[in-house]
Amino acid sequence: MTIRGFSRIASIVAAAVFGTLGCACVPVTIAAATAQPTPAEFGDYRIGPADMLQISVWKNDALSRTVPVRPDGMISLPLVNEIRAAGLTPMQLRDALKKKLAEYVPNAEVSVVVMEIRSFVVSVLGEVRTPGRYQLNSGDTVLEVLARAGGVTEFASRSDVVVLRSDAGAKRRIPFNYDKVIAAPGVYENFSVRPGDIVVVP
To answer: What architecture is the 52-116 domain classified under in CATH?
Structure first.
């Protein structure tokens, strides 16, 4: 890890411990969020409802457009009609679209770009200064989420934090020892959250 990267983590941790987040780290709830992730082809990112996708078919403007993923996980496109997007990576959706379009546009060159991530939402409950639901970028860690929630309060049981996660239909409880992660960074895992996670601070 570079000195710059270590300084960034140290700043986040200090803010979470002392509850003195600066203006750059003010908690941003869904209702108040204004910044959007930059467009990118997220190789491992799983598309979710409300995400905005840019579908491009080379040399075919009639089939190229920006579409939202509906709450049922589907998107609508000419010729294809409806196709499921939620749960797929951009590459998987690209392959599915090429297969669907093959009858009309043989060897179509298709690209799928996630323009806006709107489905990556994590809830933070319990002894934090600003509990709520937060719209995040892919890759945020538990400590970063807690920092967004204003840090833990003085009454928090910091060794008993738990992340509730639905994984392939099964419910998981993932323990997170806040004190150990801060005391020994790199020794105890500060893992990344996933869409739909619930971080509970008792």
So the answer is: 2-Layer Sandwich (3.30)
The predicted-structure confidence for 42-90, as pLDDT tens digits, reads as follows 447 889 999 999 999 999 999 999 999 999 999 999 999 999 999 899 9
- Buried b / exposed e over 144-170, threshold 16 CB at 10 Å, is bbbbbbbbbeeebebeebbbebeeeee
Class of domain 3-36+119-201: alpha beta
181's CB contacts (< 8 A; 6+ apart) are: 142, 143, 188, 189, 190
For residue 137, report the phi and psi dihedrals to the nearest 5 degrees: -95, 155
pLDDT computed for residue 57 by the predictor: 95
pLDDT in tens, 106-135: 989 999 999 988 888 999 999 999 999 998
Asked if 122 and 141 touch (Cβ cutoff 8 Å), the reply is no
Task: Report the residue count for the chain.
Answer: 202
**DSSP collapsed to 3 states, 143-157:** HHHHHHCCCECCCCC
What does the domain layout of the chain look like in residue ranges?
Answer: 3-36+119-201, 52-116
- Token reading at 5: 């990267």
Cα 44 to Cα 42: distance, rounded to the nearest angstrom: 6
Extract the tokens encoding 101: 């379009």
- What backbone torsions phi and psi does residue 13 show, to the nearest 5 degrees? -65, -45
- Greatest C-alpha distance within the chain: 63
